[in-house]
Amino acid sequence: MEKAAREVEALLPLTPAVFQILLALSEGERHGYGIMREVSARSGGRLRLGPGTLYGSIKRLLADRLIEESDERPDPALDDQRRRYYRLTPFGRRVAEAEAERLAQLVSLARARRLLPEPLPGPVAGGV
Amino acid sequence: MAPRSRPRWPLAASLRLYQLLLVLYPPRFRRAFGPQMAQVFGDCCAEVYRCGGTPALLRLWADTLRDLLTSVPRERLERFERPRARRAAAPAQAPAGAFFLEAGPPAGHVPDSPRRSTMPTSMLLSRRLKRFLQRMRPQPGSIPLDDRLRFERFTERARHTLHLAQEEAQRLNHHYIGTEHLLLGLVREGDGVAAKVLAGLGIRLDAVRDAVIFIIGRGDRRVEGEVGLTPRSKKVIQLAFDEARRLNHHYLGTEHLLLGLVREGDGIAAGVLERLGANLDDVRTQTLRVLADLSGSPPDRSVEDGPGHEGQEGSGDSGA
C-alpha cells in the first residue's frame, strides 16, 4: 500500500499535456486524434496538442503504465484507416486522481490567499 | 457532404511534407508512432482545411512546426535524462498490479483481452469479405441484384487481387486491408486490365511498395488473426460495383476496382498513385480507353476478367 502510494507520488506533478490526456481518457478509450480533439474542445481551443507532443506523452504514459493500448479498429465516425485506441489503467486513474487532489489543494490555498474568489454556493449545491 | 471544390493537393502535399519531417524523430520513436502521428496530422489537416481553407492550413503548420521544435529535442534528448525517472517508475508495474488486486479493480476496468485467434487469415478474409458483400444493401447506383450473388460477381482476377491485397497487408505487418493494399494487389495481379493500365502509366510494384512503406511504415508486430477491410476499402468495392453498373458490366473485374479506387480518391492508394506521378483522372481515362479498345471486337465481359458466371446475367439486367 505504502509503496503504491509512493509510486503515484513519484509521478506528480504531471505536465499539463499529460494530465489533459488522462482526463480525456477518463471517460473511456479513445484514439490519438480523439484525444487531441477532446483536449482542444475542453480547453476551448487554447491547448492544442501537436502530434509530436501527443505521442511523446503517450509513449511515456505507456512506459509508466498509466495507459495501455486497447484495440485497433476503424473509427465509425471518421471512416478511415484503423486506429489504435488507448485507455486508462487502474494505476493511471489513481495517478490522475492524485494529481486532481494536488491541484485542488493548490486551488484552496489560492482561495485562502484571496487569489481566487470563493466559489459561489449555488453551482456547487446544484451539483453541476 | 463536405464541399469538394477546394483542390486536394495542399492536403496531400502537407501530409507528404510532414512524413518527411518525421525523419527528425529518433528511429525507435518513429517506428512506434510515426504512422499514427501522420494519421492524426492528416486528420487535423483535413478538418482545418475543410473549415478554413488554406489560411487555416497555414496556421496548423505554424502550430505543427512549434510542436516539432519542442517534441523532437525532447525525444532526442530523452535517452540522456530519462533513465533515472524510468527506473523510478518501472517497479510500479508489478507491485501496482498487486496493489490493485488487493484494493479490488476500480469500476470500469476491463481486463486485458487475450490475443486474437490465430485462424488462417485467408479464411477470415474471404468470410469477412463475403459477409460484407452480403450485407451491402442495393442502393441507388449499385447493382440491383440479389446481395448474395455479389461475391459471385467477382472475376477470378478480382478475387485473386483481394487475396494478393491481403498478402501484401500481412507482408507489411498491417492489421487491415486498406486502399494501398488493394492497389498493391492490382499491380501485382499482373494480367488484368487494371494491371495493364497501371503498368502503362509506369507504376511498378516495388515503387508502390516503397511508397506505402514510406507513408505508412511497416507494422511492428506480426499479424495474427483477423485482417479486415477498412471502411475506405469497402467504399472502394462499393464504388467498383457502381462503376460496373454504369459500364453495363455484369461482373466485377480488376478494372472496376481500379476505377473505384481512383473515384474514392482520398485513400492512401490515391496518394501513392499521385506520388508516383499518375494523375487520378489519367488512370480513369486510361482504364476506360483500354476497356473500349478491348470491347471493340469481342463482347466486353469475355475479353478480360471473364466472369464465368453467365448464368446470372438475367438478374443483373432486371433493374438496370
Please characterize this protein's 3D structure.
The complex is a heterodimer of chains A (128) and B (320). With 128 residues, chain A is an alpha+beta fold. Helix content of chain A is 57%, strand content 13%. A 3-stranded antiparallel sheet of chain A has the order 1-3-2. The radius of gyration of chain A is 17 Å and the shape is globular. The model of chain A is unreliable at 124-128 (pLDDT under 50). In chain B, helix 7 packs across helix 8 (193-200), helix 7 (179-189) runs antiparallel to helix 9 and helix 8 crosses helix 13 (280-295). Chain B is 66% helix and 1% strand. Chain B starts with 8 loop residues before the first helix and ends with a helix. Chain B has helices at 9-21, 27-89, 93-103, 121-135, 150-153, 156-171, 179-189, 193-200, 205-215, 231-246, 254-264, 268-275, 280-295, 300-303, 313-317; strands spanning 176-177, 228-229. Chain B has a two-stranded parallel sheet with strand order 1-2. Chain B has 15 helices and 2 strands. The A-B interface holds A 1, 3-4, 7, 10-11, 32-33, 36, 48-56, 58-59, 63-65, 68, 70, 72, 74, 76, 78-84, 87, 89-91, 93 and B 25, 29, 32-33, 36-41, 43-44, 63-64, 66-68, 70-72, 74-75, 86, 88-89, 91-93, 95-96, 99-100, 102, 105-106, 109-110, 112, 175-176, 178, 230-232, 235, 268.
In short:
The complex is a heterodimer of chains A (128) and B (320). Chain A has 128 residues and is of the alpha+beta class. Chain A is built from six helices and three strands.
Unreliable stretches of chain B: 82-124, 137-148, 297-320
Give me the count of strands of chain A: 3
Rounded Rg of chain B: 23 Å
Biggest interface pair, counts: A-B, 40 and 46 residues
Number of discrete helical segments of chain B = 15
Order of helices and strands of chain A: HHEHHEEHH
Distance linking N and C termini of chain B: 27 Å
**Strand portion of chain A:** 5-15%
Question: Main β-sheet of chain A: number of strands, strand sense, barrel status?
Answer: 3 strands, antiparallel
Query: How much β-strand is present in the residues of chain B?
Result: under 5%
